[in-house]
Amino acid sequence: MRVSKFISRWFAVFALPTLTAFSLAFIVPFVLGLVLSFCKFTTVLNAKFIGTANYGKIFTADSSFPHALGLTVLFALASVASVNGIAFVLALLLTRGLAGTNALRTVFFMPNLIGGIVLGYIWQQLLNGLLAPFDKTVQTSVGDGFWGMVVVFNWQMIGYMMIIYIAGIQNVSGDVLEAASIDGAGYFTTVFKILLPNLVPSITICTFLTLSQSFKMFDQNLSLTAGQPGGATKLLALDIYDTFYNMGPAMRGVGQAKAVVFFVFVGVVAFLQLRATRSKEVEG
Amino acid sequence: MKRQVIVGILATLTLTGMAGLTACGDGGEGSQTTGTGSTAGPSTSPDQVKGSGTVHYINAKPEIADKYEEVAADFLEETGITLKVVTAASGTYEQQLTAEMGKSTPPDLFQINSPQMAAQWQDYTADLAGTSLYGALTDKTMAITSGNAVVGLPYVVEGYGIIYNDAIMKKYFALADKAVDVSDASEIKDFATLQAVVEDMQAKKDALGIKGVFASTSMKAGEDWRWNNHLIAVPLTYEWEATGTDLSQPVNSFEFTYNKDFQNLFDLYLNNSTVAKGAALTNLAVGDSMAEFALGQAAMAQNGNWAWSQIDSTDGNVVLSEDIKYLPLYTGQPDDASRGLAIGTDNYYAINSQVSAEQQQLAADFIWWLFNSETGKRHVVESLGFIAPFETFDDTEVPDDPLAKEVKAWMGKDGVTNVAWGSKVIPNQAWKDNFTSTLTKYILGEATWDEVAENSVEDWSKQAKLGAGE
């Protein structure tokens, strides 16, 4: 009681530094960005209010936004499925007490520590080397560029998701597994009927992370394909960046409006996904 | 508990709100000075610049970033004025400029690269007509104007064309079985002769010890400016000359009348090269091409005078400075012989009209010192390596590099008209990127040349509209 009274009295003082930092680094830029999406501007402090005209131009000025939106959705679907599938299988393999498990876990996790731009350039060389005999590069067709990005994204994200799944699997009570084996459940029955239902919290967090990361992917996109050929492999974030910087200051507001739409879209998708998987979580 | 939370939030909002208000205050003051700035602008500077304070400059040429530190040291010593230089990384100048302009000490001196950019940044460009440096500009038509105001002051002249290695050319002309009449590279004066020489050289590449006549046609994203900015300048200039288009203003329509001129040279590059026409080209950078040239694997490469440092610094460079020469970009026009190098600039000084009159004057004083004082001129010629377009420089004050000397020589050649940089009126970067994409499709056989031409014409009017905010 005394402690909670103490907390409630001094809450504001202790929360203030964090709140200030959060406001300065997040809320202020966000509000400024929201305001700028209704303005014509050259720099952020030299803006003129023009109402909703920027939003009107998102879909009419050129077709790059709907195209990038469609491609991003496809990319997210392909990435979420492949990253989580492969990460889960690796997690299963690395929780069976095989020799060298710890070393392998570290190795699989390491790609996550490399920056996206560097990854993009390295993989560009690797993939172009593979494609060279077919007289292609990742920048010559949409398909190659798209699957190239999926490969890079997988390579980077699988290790991280694998660690989360491993933690989840290790959390499943040995009693439950033992009871299952006494009841005569085989390996696959155990995986699908016992492990998976108990892993839903891990699946929730992993799908959320991969989904939001794949929607926001920018640096690998820029360094791997740069949107080539002809902007056909631009994901949403790169399309917004190009609108903002490569079409002249008159289009900056439109880029800003795209960013706001992007935010709302990713927010809604992430919310729906969280609600859907949360509802399947069981009490352990 | 709830009350404290509200207090905390209110306190935070007050803090951030104050920050917001101050920011708005800055903006307000800024726009007020626009009014005074656009009417007056900086005026003449004394011959001996003296003063105090700090000039902020944002540099768009990362390759000479460290040279500006030497300039700043000497400038401070001679005049008492501090020069602070921020350099934008390659290809990010406009991003950097946008960020810097939003700061509390924005750049006083910055650069624009085209009339489009001048129009887009019109709230920030002071009138330079009264400055001493504009008074010394050799060719006043080179400046970017807006109404009666001079908003962009060119400060470096550059030239590009086909760079060739005369050692390899001499070797070819000495061959007994050469299929052409000319016997020296300087006798190539039109596209037909160039084509005949190049194709015959390609056929005899083993005898010449080269992999191909032209260095590879690099098409990697961001490494494509030799085509979408330079080669395209020739047909663009021919079109602007034919239509009498004013290049100091944004240009909204484009017909690509001379698209075959582009195709002639582009095909010649692609078909007679070190690297065969194909997807591999999309993985090559300008540096790769220049390395091939430096190593003697190629006899020719299209590039500008800035390429010398790249060639010279390549490990195993075999190209001697007396062997490196230029051919103009002959495209198959009847008057090819009277055409010279593509000489111009896309580097213009602009002074920020949003800063105080004193700061604007300091910026004007700095550029006058740089291009007028003995110390400044020495820096321009020796470390910055600029061919300066000002009367304060005489013919001997040229950088000591073979390509710069060639450019200077072509500028004074009798009976030759140099080709202007018609590409500076390209609507935006997006047009260039899209042009490269269609060129890549053409290389891969996925688009015909007519489709390339049509696409680029349509995209021009589209991007011009977007750029103007319509």
What's the quick description here?
The complex is a heterodimer of chains A (284) and B (470). Chain A has 284 residues and is mostly helical.
Q: Which class of secondary structure composition applies to the elements of chain A? A: mainly alpha
Mean pLDDT of chain B: 86
Secondary structure: number of strands of chain B: 12
Low-confidence residue ranges of chain B: 9-38
Strand content of chain B: 5-15%
CATH homologous superfamily heading of the domain at 72-233 in chain A: MetI-like
Please give the most extensive interface between any two protein chains, plus how many residues each contributes.
A-B, 47 and 56 residues
Reading the helices and strands of chain B in chain order gives HEHEHEHHEEEHHHEHHHHEHEEEHHHEHH
Q: What is the CATH superfamily of the largest domain in chain B?
A: Periplasmic binding protein-like II
Q: Helical amount among residues of chain B, as a percent range?
A: 40-55%
By CATH, the architecture of the domain at 72-233 in chain A is named Orthogonal Bundle
CATH architectural type of the largest domain in chain B? 3-Layer(aba) Sandwich
Low-confidence stretches of chain A: none
Total number of strands of chain A: 2
